Amino acid sequence: QLQLVESGGGLVQPGGSLRLSCAASGFILDYYGIGWFRQAPGKEREWISCISSRGDLTNYPDSVKGRFTISRDNAMHTVYLEMNSLKPEATAVYYCARRRIGWSPCATRENEYDTWGQGTQVTVSS
To answer: Mind listing the pLDDT tens digit for each residue in 72-95?
Structure first.
């Protein structure tokens, strides 16, 4: 079964940290770049990070740069997103996705991904 499963979401106070995990199964993770997206209530889905198949290339939008870190452990079939200094506006459902093979090493558009997890809720509130 080809599957991505997010975990690690929850309730955190402003300024706090969370570490999200994306567990992959049913395919060879080494061949694929992975992206993270989030969608807040009433908002469009927003790209927040990407990592190449080898982990040598990463990218972030200015909104999270310096506070979020994406990493991967191919041997464990898992991609991580460490989120620090969280703000209330970070409240959203967070998704990981598999990049289409042969496409950009670190893609930023939704149509460059072909498989999505079901998401994990992150709530930043005091």
So the answer is: 999 999 999 999 999 999 999 999
Distance CA 105, CA 25 (A): 20
Shortest CA distance to 16 belongs to which of 80, 68, 76, 85?
85
The pLDDT value given to residue 103? 74
Structural contact between residues 117 and 24, judged by C-beta atoms closer than 8 angstroms:
no
In the predicted model, residues of the chain with pLDDT beneath 70 are none
Q: Alpha-carbon distance 96 to 120, whole Å?
A: 9
The pair of three-digit structure tokens given for residue 52, joined into one six-digit string: 């190449």
**Residue whose C-alpha is closest to residue 6's, from 104, 92, 106:** 92
